[in-house]
Structure formats: structure tokens, C-alpha cells
Design goal:
With about 350 residues, this protein is of the alpha+beta class. The protein has a domain at about 5-55 and about 170-230: Arc Repressor Mutant, subunit A (Orthogonal Bundle). Helices cover about 35% and strands about 25% of the residues. Strand 3 and strand 4 form a beta hairpin. The protein is globular. Mean pLDDT is about 90; it is low at about 160-170 and about 335-340.
């Protein structure tokens, strides 16, 4: 599928930020020198083609009282598909991949508490019969960027600052009322219409200005990081992706993190728990997207050359088993349950 220059302009703008205003597509059209109808029709077309997965809020799950982790499992090669099916039954599993490593199944898992998370992991062990796995919670989050570099646009060095949430305003669970919960559900997928926010406000029987005020409060407190279009990276030409894990000393961490997050192809960067007794001492995780495996290898080589790191692993994605939008509203309202 060919992406036109107009598509690139629209996609690149939409994935940066979707405006919170009465007519966000009109704002976008003005910036691009187009009419509102032209932008709406093009966005609808890109959504129908699957290039745009959805327009939605990017939530900070911890601010909603959720607990998340990354799990790596050593699944027997002849049972990967059946085990993947069991894992995918859990609504708390939002991303799930087969990767090129002894730990071949990797999935993110969300729960309403640490105790529930542990219970889900124990259940998965019991149901799959696989006991060799790593529970890899985030210790520090340096970069999480759903903004992909789109082939055909200038490749500029990112100037992302290391994420620091200590200066965000406090917004406790007790401050979240029933209207907030309904808004969270609505913001999981916005409609592509002239007045998407008015549509939400009307459904919730509140004013559009009240909705805007609440969204600004969510953003200020860190509950919502931003509202943007989520793109299918395969359909914009980024056919390869690789998770690279490094063993990094505490002393070297700041310098290496700043280098990693400067690459636009690095979309995620985390420090995660290690398990030295199990031979897993890799504490820094970076997700890299590229057009080809050769391109990804070139970025990895540059990182290794500039950092001098010797202990690392490359885990290329072999298959995508699940990629779902987290259903936060369901989790907050009624807890997180397995879907079976």
C-alpha cells in the first residue's frame, strides 16, 4: 500500500497530538492548508485501510491504580500456538509476541493490584504447564513514544528528556468519579467526525467545556500523557522491530539512556528487574523499529560503538499474537478478570 505525501503529513501530525478543541480536524486542516472535509475524508480512508488503528488517549496506567509488568516465557517450540492462545484469553494481556530467543513468548500484563498480577502469572503457569518465566516489572521508564518515524520524513534526532513524574500534580484514585470513568472509556477510541468531543459530551450529558476541563486536568496530573493517532507501523513501512536488552552499570546508565532515547527509531526505553540466578542480568530495554533488519542492525551497531557495551541480546519479533487497546474503564469499574 502506497503512502502519499499528504498521508505522511496527516499521519505525522496526528500521531504527535490530537487537539483538544471544538473542531480538532479543522485545526489540523488549517495547519496543513487543507479543508476540514479533505482532512476528515483522508483520515477516514487511512482508518479503513488500517494505517490508523485508532485515535485515543495514551493513559498512564499507574495513575489509574493499575499494576503492569512484562513477562518472558520459555515455551516449548511445538506448543507455542496453544500456549499463546491461553495467554491471550486474559484481558490484561495487551501486547504479546513471539521473539527470537530462548525466552520466546513476551507479553505485557496488567492487573488491579500486585496480588492480582501474581495470581494471574501463577494461573498462566498452571494452565500452560510452563514454569520457566521472568516477571520483568519496570523500575524506571525513560521513554515511551507511540510516535513512529515515518519513512519519507526527515530523520531527526529526538530531544526527549528522561521522564520524570515527580513534578506532576497529585491525582489520587479517590478523586476519580463516575463521570471520569465514563470519559476514560470514551477516550479509548474517538470517532472521526467534525465534533468528536461534542459527541462524547452529549453521550455523557455534560458540556463540551466541562469535558475539556477534565481532560486538561487529566493531562496536568499525568493520567493522560496525550491524545493521538495510533498507527500500524507495518503499514507505514516499518516492517522490522527488535527488542534489544543490555547489561548496564548504574554509573553508566544516565549517559547510555540519553544516547538511546535520542534515536527516533527507539520508541521505548525502560530499566527492568533482573534475575542473576537465572542468568538474566539485562536491565536496560530498548525497542527499535526500522524498515529492514539491516536498518535495525545499523542502529544497534551505532549504539554499541558509541557505548562500548558488550553484554546484550537482540530479540527480533517473529510473530505478533496480540496487540490490543487496554480497556482501563473495565478494569477500574469492575476489576480485571480473565476473559474465559
Amino acid at each position: 500500500m502506497a503512502i502519499t505525501s499528504l498521508d505522511i503529513k496527516i499521519l505525522d501530525t496526528l500521531q504527535q497530538e490530537f487537539s483538544v478543541c471544538h473542531q480538532p480536524f479543522k485545526t489540523l486542516s488549517t495547519n496543513l492548508g487543507l479543508t476540514e472535509d479533505e482532512v476528515l475524508n483522508q483520515v477516514l480512508s487511512l482508518k479503513e485501510q488500517g494505517v490508523i488503528r485508532r485515535i485515543s488517549a495514551l493513559f498512564n496506567s499507574s495513575k489509574l491504580g493499575m499494576v503492569t509488568t512484562l513477562v518472558a516465557m520459555k515455551a516449548p517450540g511445538d506448543r507455542i500456538d496453544s500456549i499463546a492462545d491461553i495467554i491471550n484469553e486474559y484481558t490484561g494481556v495487551t501486547h504479546h509476541y513471539e521473539r527470537d530467543n530462548d525466552y520466546n513468548l513476551w507479553f505485557t500484563l496488567m492487573a488491579s493490584s500486585k496480588e492480582e498480577l501474581t495470581r494471574f502469572i501463577d494461573e498462566i503457569k498452571e494452565k500452560t504447564g510452563v514454569n520457566t518465566l521472568l516477571n520483568l516489572p519496570t523500575l524506571r521508564r525513560f521513554k515511551v513514544d507511540t510516535t513512529f518515524w515515518i519513512p519519507g520524513t526527515p530523520l531527526k534526532q529526538d530531544t526527549v528528556e528522561i521522564i520524570n513524574e515527580t513534578n506532576l500534580e497529585k491525582y489520587d484514585d479517590r478523586d476519580i468519579d463516575e463521570t471520569d470513568k465514563k470519559i476514560f472509556k470514551e477516550l479509548e477510541t474517538l470517532s472521526v467526525v467534525i465534533h468528536p468531543y461534542k459527541l462524547i459530551a452529549d453521550r455523557l450529558k455534560i458540556t463540551e467545556d466541562d469535558l475539556f476541563q477534565r481532560i486538561f486536568t487529566y493531562k496536568k496530573s499525568g493520567i493522560i500523557r496525550k491524545i493521538r493517532a495510533v498507527l500500524d507501523h507495518y503499514k507505514i513501512g516499518l516492517a522490522e522491530n527488535v527488542l534489544v536488552v543490555f547489561k548496564v552499570s548504574p554509573q553508566s546508565m544516565p549517559e547510555i539512556v540519553n544516547l538511546l532515547i535520542s534515536y527516533p527509531q527507539v520508541t521505548h526505553c525502560y530499566e527492568r528487574q533482573t534475575y542473576p540466578a537465572q542468568g538474566w542480568e539485562y536491565n536496560l530495554f530498548a525497542m527499535i523499529h526500522g524498515q529492514t533488519k539491516q536498518e535495525c542492525e545499523g542502529i544497534i551497531s551505532l549504539i554499541l560503538e558509541k557505548t562500548g557495551l558488550l553484554e546484550y541480546k537482540k530479540l527480533y519479533t517473529k510473530r505478533e499474537f496480540k496487540k490490543a487497546n487496554p480497556r482501563y474503564f473495565e478494569y477500574i469499574s469492575s476489576g480485571l478478570q480473565s476473559s474465559h
